[in-house]
Design brief:
alpha+beta; Beta-Lactamase; Heat Shock Protein 90; 2 domains; 5-stranded antiparallel sheet; 5-stranded mixed sheet; 48% helix; 24% strand
Length: 346
Protein backbone atom coordinates (compact mmCIF):
# COMPACT_ATOMS: atom_id res chain seq x y z
CA UNK A 1 0.00 0.00 0.00
CA UNK A 2 2.86 2.31 0.83
CA UNK A 3 4.51 1.61 -2.54
CA UNK A 4 1.30 2.47 -4.39
CA UNK A 5 0.93 5.70 -2.46
CA UNK A 6 4.51 6.66 -3.20
CA UNK A 7 4.06 5.84 -6.88
CA UNK A 8 0.92 7.96 -6.99
CA UNK A 9 2.76 10.86 -5.37
CA UNK A 10 5.64 10.47 -7.83
CA UNK A 11 3.20 10.33 -10.77
CA UNK A 12 1.43 13.41 -9.46
CA UNK A 13 4.74 15.27 -9.13
CA UNK A 14 5.67 14.24 -12.66
CA UNK A 15 2.34 15.46 -14.02
CA UNK A 16 2.72 18.77 -12.18
CA UNK A 17 6.29 19.10 -13.44
CA UNK A 18 5.25 18.27 -17.01
CA UNK A 19 2.36 20.75 -16.86
CA UNK A 20 4.67 23.43 -15.51
CA UNK A 21 7.26 22.75 -18.22
CA UNK A 22 4.63 22.78 -20.96
CA UNK A 23 3.22 26.08 -19.66
CA UNK A 24 6.66 27.67 -19.61
CA UNK A 25 7.39 26.26 -23.07
CA UNK A 26 4.17 27.53 -24.59
CA UNK A 27 4.07 30.93 -22.89
CA UNK A 28 7.73 31.87 -23.31
CA UNK A 29 8.46 35.15 -25.08
CA UNK A 30 11.50 33.58 -26.71
CA UNK A 31 11.44 31.05 -29.49
CA UNK A 32 12.25 27.50 -28.39
CA UNK A 33 12.95 24.55 -30.68
CA UNK A 34 13.90 21.02 -29.68
CA UNK A 35 16.04 19.00 -32.10
CA UNK A 36 17.01 15.36 -32.19
CA UNK A 37 20.81 15.45 -31.90
CA UNK A 38 21.24 12.44 -34.16
CA UNK A 39 19.14 13.64 -37.10
CA UNK A 40 19.37 17.41 -36.38
CA UNK A 41 15.64 17.56 -37.14
CA UNK A 42 13.17 19.69 -35.16
CA UNK A 43 10.90 17.56 -32.98
CA UNK A 44 9.07 20.38 -31.19
CA UNK A 45 8.71 24.18 -31.25
CA UNK A 46 6.83 26.60 -29.05
CA UNK A 47 4.10 29.00 -30.26
CA UNK A 48 6.43 32.03 -30.12
CA UNK A 49 8.78 30.31 -32.57
CA UNK A 50 5.99 29.58 -35.03
CA UNK A 51 4.90 33.22 -34.81
CA UNK A 52 8.47 34.46 -35.26
CA UNK A 53 8.99 32.38 -38.40
CA UNK A 54 5.50 32.37 -39.86
CA UNK A 55 5.36 28.55 -40.00
CA UNK A 56 2.76 26.25 -38.49
CA UNK A 57 4.02 23.82 -35.84
CA UNK A 58 3.54 20.87 -38.18
CA UNK A 59 5.59 22.64 -40.86
CA UNK A 60 8.53 23.15 -38.49
CA UNK A 61 8.71 19.58 -37.23
CA UNK A 62 11.12 17.53 -39.34
CA UNK A 63 13.15 20.47 -40.62
CA UNK A 64 16.75 21.36 -39.83
CA UNK A 65 17.70 24.81 -38.56
CA UNK A 66 19.18 25.92 -41.87
CA UNK A 67 15.90 24.99 -43.58
CA UNK A 68 14.03 27.54 -41.47
CA UNK A 69 16.60 30.28 -42.10
CA UNK A 70 18.41 30.10 -38.78
CA UNK A 71 21.78 28.67 -39.84
CA UNK A 72 23.50 29.19 -43.17
CA UNK A 73 23.57 25.61 -44.49
CA UNK A 74 23.91 21.92 -43.64
CA UNK A 75 27.67 22.28 -43.06
CA UNK A 76 27.02 24.87 -40.37
CA UNK A 77 24.34 22.65 -38.84
CA UNK A 78 26.77 19.71 -38.59
CA UNK A 79 29.43 22.00 -37.10
CA UNK A 80 26.99 22.99 -34.35
CA UNK A 81 26.51 19.32 -33.39
CA UNK A 82 30.27 18.68 -33.27
CA UNK A 83 30.81 21.72 -31.06
CA UNK A 84 27.94 20.79 -28.74
CA UNK A 85 29.40 17.30 -28.29
CA UNK A 86 32.57 18.92 -26.98
CA UNK A 87 31.18 21.61 -24.70
CA UNK A 88 27.37 21.15 -24.36
CA UNK A 89 26.48 24.81 -25.00
CA UNK A 90 26.95 27.28 -27.87
CA UNK A 91 25.94 30.90 -27.98
CA UNK A 92 25.32 32.64 -31.28
CA UNK A 93 24.98 36.42 -31.34
CA UNK A 94 23.60 38.63 -34.08
CA UNK A 95 22.32 35.85 -36.32
CA UNK A 96 20.12 36.88 -39.22
CA UNK A 97 16.75 35.12 -39.31
CA UNK A 98 14.45 35.36 -42.29
CA UNK A 99 10.81 34.50 -41.70
CA UNK A 100 8.62 32.74 -44.20
CA UNK A 101 7.23 36.13 -45.25
CA UNK A 102 10.73 37.45 -45.98
CA UNK A 103 10.90 39.62 -42.86
CA UNK A 104 14.44 39.80 -41.47
CA UNK A 105 15.09 39.61 -37.76
CA UNK A 106 18.26 39.71 -35.72
CA UNK A 107 18.34 36.95 -33.13
CA UNK A 108 20.49 35.62 -30.35
CA UNK A 109 20.60 31.81 -30.02
CA UNK A 110 21.70 29.64 -27.11
CA UNK A 111 21.93 25.94 -27.96
CA UNK A 112 22.26 23.32 -25.20
CA UNK A 113 22.80 19.57 -25.49
CA UNK A 114 20.78 17.42 -23.07
CA UNK A 115 20.53 13.72 -22.40
CA UNK A 116 16.89 12.67 -22.11
CA UNK A 117 17.67 9.11 -21.14
CA UNK A 118 17.26 7.23 -24.39
CA UNK A 119 18.34 10.06 -26.69
CA UNK A 120 20.32 13.26 -26.95
CA UNK A 121 18.37 16.43 -27.75
CA UNK A 122 19.33 19.99 -28.50
CA UNK A 123 17.29 22.84 -27.08
CA UNK A 124 17.70 26.15 -28.87
CA UNK A 125 16.43 29.31 -27.24
CA UNK A 126 16.00 32.04 -29.86
CA UNK A 127 15.62 35.63 -28.70
CA UNK A 128 14.51 38.37 -31.08
CA UNK A 129 16.97 41.22 -30.52
CA UNK A 130 15.93 43.34 -33.51
CA UNK A 131 14.54 46.20 -31.41
CA UNK A 132 17.55 46.09 -29.10
CA UNK A 133 19.94 46.31 -32.05
CA UNK A 134 17.97 49.22 -33.52
CA UNK A 135 18.13 50.98 -30.14
CA UNK A 136 21.88 50.32 -29.88
CA UNK A 137 22.46 51.67 -33.38
CA UNK A 138 20.34 54.72 -32.53
CA UNK A 139 22.37 55.37 -29.38
CA UNK A 140 25.59 54.91 -31.35
CA UNK A 141 24.38 57.37 -33.97
CA UNK A 142 23.37 59.88 -31.28
CA UNK A 143 26.75 59.58 -29.59
CA UNK A 144 28.50 60.19 -32.91
CA UNK A 145 26.24 63.17 -33.54
CA UNK A 146 26.87 64.56 -30.04
CA UNK A 147 30.61 64.12 -30.55
CA UNK A 148 30.41 65.88 -33.91
CA UNK A 149 28.35 68.75 -32.53
CA UNK A 150 30.58 69.07 -29.45
CA UNK A 151 33.63 69.43 -31.69
CA UNK A 152 31.83 72.02 -33.80
CA UNK A 153 30.73 73.90 -30.69
CA UNK A 154 34.25 73.90 -29.26
CA UNK A 155 35.56 75.20 -32.59
CA UNK A 156 33.04 78.04 -32.45
CA UNK A 157 33.98 78.85 -28.83
CA UNK A 158 37.66 78.81 -29.78
CA UNK A 159 37.03 81.18 -32.68
CA UNK A 160 34.99 83.49 -30.46
CA UNK A 161 37.71 83.47 -27.77
CA UNK A 162 40.52 84.11 -30.25
CA UNK A 163 38.73 86.97 -31.95
CA UNK A 164 37.41 88.51 -28.73
CA UNK A 165 40.96 88.53 -27.33
CA UNK A 166 41.90 91.03 -30.03
CA UNK A 167 39.40 93.56 -28.69
CA UNK A 168 40.40 95.93 -25.90
CA UNK A 169 41.72 95.20 -22.42
CA UNK A 170 41.75 91.86 -20.55
CA UNK A 171 38.76 93.06 -18.49
CA UNK A 172 36.83 93.84 -21.65
CA UNK A 173 37.83 90.48 -23.09
CA UNK A 174 36.46 88.62 -20.06
CA UNK A 175 33.10 90.39 -20.12
CA UNK A 176 32.60 90.11 -23.87
CA UNK A 177 33.68 86.48 -24.03
CA UNK A 178 31.33 85.61 -21.17
CA UNK A 179 28.39 87.34 -22.86
CA UNK A 180 29.04 85.62 -26.19
CA UNK A 181 29.36 82.18 -24.63
CA UNK A 182 26.13 82.74 -22.70
CA UNK A 183 24.45 83.66 -26.00
CA UNK A 184 25.82 80.54 -27.65
CA UNK A 185 24.62 78.43 -24.71
CA UNK A 186 21.12 79.91 -24.97
CA UNK A 187 20.85 78.66 -28.53
CA UNK A 188 22.23 75.25 -27.51
CA UNK A 189 19.64 75.00 -24.71
CA UNK A 190 16.84 75.51 -27.21
CA UNK A 191 18.28 72.89 -29.54
CA UNK A 192 18.66 70.35 -26.74
CA UNK A 193 15.11 71.05 -25.58
CA UNK A 194 13.92 70.34 -29.11
CA UNK A 195 16.14 67.25 -29.48
CA UNK A 196 18.30 68.98 -32.08
CA UNK A 197 15.44 68.97 -34.57
CA UNK A 198 15.27 72.76 -34.90
CA UNK A 199 14.43 76.01 -33.14
CA UNK A 200 11.42 78.26 -33.65
CA UNK A 201 12.78 81.67 -34.70
CA UNK A 202 10.60 83.66 -32.29
CA UNK A 203 11.90 81.49 -29.40
CA UNK A 204 15.47 82.08 -30.55
CA UNK A 205 14.92 85.85 -30.62
CA UNK A 206 13.43 85.78 -27.13
CA UNK A 207 16.40 83.77 -25.81
CA UNK A 208 19.03 86.00 -27.40
CA UNK A 209 17.30 89.21 -26.32
CA UNK A 210 16.41 87.93 -22.87
CA UNK A 211 17.71 91.14 -21.23
CA UNK A 212 15.03 93.06 -23.15
CA UNK A 213 12.17 90.62 -22.54
CA UNK A 214 10.00 93.39 -21.02
CA UNK A 215 10.36 95.43 -24.21
CA UNK A 216 9.35 92.69 -26.63
CA UNK A 217 6.05 93.79 -28.08
CA UNK A 218 6.64 97.46 -27.26
CA UNK A 219 10.15 98.60 -28.17
CA UNK A 220 11.30 95.33 -29.74
CA UNK A 221 8.74 94.38 -32.39
CA UNK A 222 8.62 91.02 -34.16
CA UNK A 223 6.86 90.31 -37.43
CA UNK A 224 7.09 87.09 -39.42
CA UNK A 225 5.57 83.66 -40.01
CA UNK A 226 6.20 80.53 -37.96
CA UNK A 227 9.70 79.43 -38.96
CA UNK A 228 11.71 76.56 -37.49
CA UNK A 229 15.44 77.00 -38.06
CA UNK A 230 17.95 74.21 -38.58
CA UNK A 231 20.60 73.78 -35.85
CA UNK A 232 23.30 75.48 -37.96
CA UNK A 233 21.04 78.38 -38.89
CA UNK A 234 19.92 78.81 -35.27
CA UNK A 235 23.53 79.02 -34.12
CA UNK A 236 24.60 81.56 -36.74
CA UNK A 237 21.50 83.75 -36.62
CA UNK A 238 21.33 83.52 -32.82
CA UNK A 239 24.87 84.84 -32.38
CA UNK A 240 24.17 87.67 -34.86
CA UNK A 241 21.00 88.66 -33.00
CA UNK A 242 22.86 88.66 -29.68
CA UNK A 243 25.56 90.92 -31.12
CA UNK A 244 23.02 93.28 -32.66
CA UNK A 245 21.14 93.46 -29.36
CA UNK A 246 24.32 94.17 -27.40
CA UNK A 247 25.32 96.97 -29.77
CA UNK A 248 21.80 98.43 -29.74
CA UNK A 249 21.90 98.56 -25.93
CA UNK A 250 25.31 100.24 -25.88
CA UNK A 251 25.11 102.66 -28.78
CA UNK A 252 21.83 102.27 -30.65
CA UNK A 253 18.08 102.30 -30.38
CA UNK A 254 17.94 100.48 -27.04
CA UNK A 255 20.44 102.82 -25.35
CA UNK A 256 17.80 105.54 -24.74
CA UNK A 257 14.18 105.65 -23.64
CA UNK A 258 12.55 106.07 -27.05
CA UNK A 259 14.29 103.89 -29.64
CA UNK A 260 12.76 100.79 -31.19
CA UNK A 261 13.97 97.68 -32.98
CA UNK A 262 11.88 96.00 -35.65
CA UNK A 263 12.81 92.37 -36.47
CA UNK A 264 11.03 90.98 -39.52
CA UNK A 265 11.45 87.79 -41.51
CA UNK A 266 9.78 86.19 -44.47
CA UNK A 267 9.95 83.29 -46.91
CA UNK A 268 9.52 84.04 -50.61
CA UNK A 269 8.42 81.34 -53.02
CA UNK A 270 9.20 80.54 -56.61
CA UNK A 271 11.83 78.54 -58.45
CA UNK A 272 14.34 79.26 -55.69
CA UNK A 273 12.57 79.76 -52.32
CA UNK A 274 14.44 82.26 -50.14
CA UNK A 275 14.51 83.28 -46.49
CA UNK A 276 15.29 86.79 -45.29
CA UNK A 277 15.51 88.40 -41.86
CA UNK A 278 15.94 92.11 -41.13
CA UNK A 279 16.95 94.06 -38.02
CA UNK A 280 15.98 97.73 -38.20
CA UNK A 281 16.65 100.34 -35.51
CA UNK A 282 14.85 103.68 -35.21
CA UNK A 283 14.69 106.47 -32.63
CA UNK A 284 18.12 105.97 -31.14
CA UNK A 285 21.08 108.36 -31.01
CA UNK A 286 22.53 109.55 -34.29
CA UNK A 287 24.52 106.67 -35.70
CA UNK A 288 28.26 107.03 -36.12
CA UNK A 289 29.74 104.39 -38.46
CA UNK A 290 32.45 102.35 -36.70
CA UNK A 291 36.01 103.38 -37.35
CA UNK A 292 37.23 99.79 -37.34
CA UNK A 293 35.80 96.33 -37.99
CA UNK A 294 35.73 94.19 -34.84
CA UNK A 295 34.65 90.63 -34.15
CA UNK A 296 31.08 91.80 -33.59
CA UNK A 297 30.85 92.63 -37.28
CA UNK A 298 32.35 89.23 -38.07
CA UNK A 299 29.52 87.57 -36.09
CA UNK A 300 26.78 89.48 -37.90
CA UNK A 301 28.61 89.24 -41.20
CA UNK A 302 30.81 86.33 -42.21
CA UNK A 303 29.73 83.87 -39.49
CA UNK A 304 26.02 84.47 -40.09
CA UNK A 305 26.58 84.11 -43.84
CA UNK A 306 28.54 80.89 -43.45
CA UNK A 307 25.88 79.30 -41.22
CA UNK A 308 23.24 79.54 -43.98
CA UNK A 309 25.38 80.05 -47.10
CA UNK A 310 23.72 83.40 -47.60
CA UNK A 311 24.51 87.10 -47.82
CA UNK A 312 24.50 89.49 -44.85
CA UNK A 313 24.53 93.26 -45.14
CA UNK A 314 24.74 95.94 -42.46
CA UNK A 315 24.18 99.66 -42.97
CA UNK A 316 24.98 102.48 -40.55
CA UNK A 317 22.46 105.14 -41.58
CA UNK A 318 22.21 108.17 -39.30
CA UNK A 319 18.63 107.21 -38.44
CA UNK A 320 19.55 103.76 -37.23
CA UNK A 321 21.47 100.55 -37.91
CA UNK A 322 19.90 98.04 -40.29
CA UNK A 323 21.00 94.45 -40.89
CA UNK A 324 19.67 91.98 -43.41
CA UNK A 325 20.42 88.34 -44.07
CA UNK A 326 19.24 86.53 -47.20
CA UNK A 327 19.72 82.83 -47.92
CA UNK A 328 18.12 79.88 -49.72
CA UNK A 329 15.19 78.77 -47.58
CA UNK A 330 16.41 75.17 -47.62
CA UNK A 331 19.62 76.27 -45.85
CA UNK A 332 17.70 77.98 -43.05
CA UNK A 333 14.46 76.14 -42.38
CA UNK A 334 13.92 72.54 -41.32
CA UNK A 335 12.23 70.31 -43.88
CA UNK A 336 9.02 70.17 -41.85
CA UNK A 337 8.89 73.94 -41.47
CA UNK A 338 9.66 74.49 -45.15
CA UNK A 339 6.88 72.06 -46.07
CA UNK A 340 4.40 73.85 -43.79
CA UNK A 341 5.41 77.19 -45.27
CA UNK A 342 4.79 75.88 -48.77
CA UNK A 343 1.42 74.47 -47.70
CA UNK A 344 0.36 77.90 -46.41
CA UNK A 345 1.50 79.73 -49.55
CA UNK A 346 -1.17 80.70 -52.11
Amino acid sequence: MTDVTERNLIDKDLRVSETRYRRLFECAHDGVVILDAGTRKIVDANPFMTKLLGYKHSELVGKELYEIGLLKDETESKAMIRELNSRNQIRYEDLQLESRTGLHKEVEVIANLYNEGDRLVIQCNIRDITERKIAEEHVSMLMAEINHRAKNLLAVVQAIANQTAKEGSPATFSARLSDRIVALAAGQDLLVRNQWLGVELSDLIAAQLDHFRDWIGTRVLLDGPVAELTPDAAQGIGMALHELGTNAAKYGALSNDAGTVLITWQVTHGTHPAFSITWLERGGPKVQPPTRSGFGQTLIGRMAQAAVQGVAEIHFAETGVSWNLNAPAANVLTKSSLGQTWARSP
